[in-house]
Design a protein that fits this description.
One of its GO terms (biological process) is DNA repair. With 223 residues, the protein is an alpha+beta fold. Helix content is 25%, strand content 27%. It has one domain: archaeoglobus fulgidus dsm 4304 fold (2-Layer Sandwich). Helix 2 packs parallel to helix 3. The structure holds two DNA strands.
Length: 223
Amino acid sequence: MKIYKRHSWDLSLDEAVAIQEKLQAEVITQDQFKEPIKYVAGVDMGFEDDGRISRAAVAVLSFPDLELRDTSIVKRPTSFPYIPGFLSFREIPALLDALEKITITPDIIFCDGQGIAHPRRFGIACHLGLFVDLPTVGVAKSLFVGKHEELPQTRGSWQPLIYEAETVGAVLRTRDGVKPVYVSSGHRISLTTAIDYVLRCTPQYRLPETTRVADRLASSTKD
DNA sequence: GCGACAG
DNA sequence: ATCTTGTCGC
């Protein structure tokens, strides 16, 4: 699929901050895509050799039946350290290599991490969204920024995630009695629509099927 | 200044 | 993210 390179990846932390602040202005948090959605994708990362090697994986599933239709895995040297607030600079380079090889362009991409629920409203889902110019959703396994009320134990219930007096995402229960996930808009999709698609992609487990498939691909010892 | 801190 | 067995609970 097509990738729109917006900047180089050889950056200092100060330059990375400048890029986040500049590109943030281009993020769209409203629905801007045509339905019906036919394909959904999930991306995930794995590491080897104490983090020196990155493994990126992409899984494209049909929607709404969620059957595997395309996959891609790439391995390359890791070029940026993990620093809270700058996850995208560590993971996106490899993810783009993997996405470039995908033959089916998905209609929505689920990312492992936050969207606008980020200190500068520019988490990995937003960053990736601008590079692929497709709807992206951040589905994180843990809280990064913001606070929220307690939420019911039933699947489908959710509470707004508030940060600096703004709703930046939602805490969503995707399975009864199981730890919730943190959903936020990445690009070209609203929060309520994002929640709807996350629920439609989590028929059985806590995380979206797309992410689960990508996760096992990125974790496999093979190449 | 002191903690907290997506993966 | 990754290093790792058994174990508690439905």
